[in-house]
# Entry
Amino acid sequence: MQWGAFMGKFRLIAAAAALLAAVASPAAASVTITTTGSSGTDGTDGNIRTFSSGGITVQASAFSYQGSTLERGFLGAYSTGLGVTNNDEGNGGSSNSHTADNVGQNDFILLIFNQAVNLTSAVLTPYDVGTGNGDNDAWVSYANLAGAFTNTPTPVALNSPLWAALMGNDWTVTGNNNSPFSTNLGSGSNFANVWLIGAANPNPDRYDDGFKLKSITVNTAVPEPGTWAMMLFGFGAVGYSLRRRKPLTIAQIA
# Structure
């Protein structure tokens, strides 16, 4: 009888531990951040624009690759999203050149977050920037860089090790030319505080790609309030149950 009581207590503790482990698993919280504005088509290269929603803040800036040479660009903000004006495009005021495109140079937007996120999708407003219809195939990558996000936004150095990390994690996704132009970025379960979204590099088809980044949707791994409540309740229930049972001595177990 005493052995049965001991085993009953053991099973209670094991069940409670399993319950607490289950409810302690983080739930993915989805946040959409709109990245629009009203700016000129050119300005100071290396400028940084900041956007926030749902406790997530992102600092965005523009870059381009001229061959293998990395250059800073101007990040414009428009009603249809963020666009890049690189060093070859002057004031960017014609031929939809103030977009993230892969005509001449490979433009991209660097996104630095205040915490690690999983970048799941983005609205990529397509523009006709070259041959064929407007296409919005995208180049995506991620990396982690300690101290990348600062309260006073600071441009990432062109010789930062971040770039090598991004080049080792990149892939291309097929865009969505149907309104509202939301594209699944195929980021799997990867979480990082730095993400890259640019025109396809390399280009998977014969169409030049160009778009403006209108919004991004991210997942954050955070325990929900209900999870914390369940955890506290579980700990309390286990403690109460153990206090209600008299401790067993070795002699009683034997």
Remarks:
- The first strand starts at residue 27 and ends at 34.
- The helical segments are 2-24, 162-167, 225-244, 250-253.
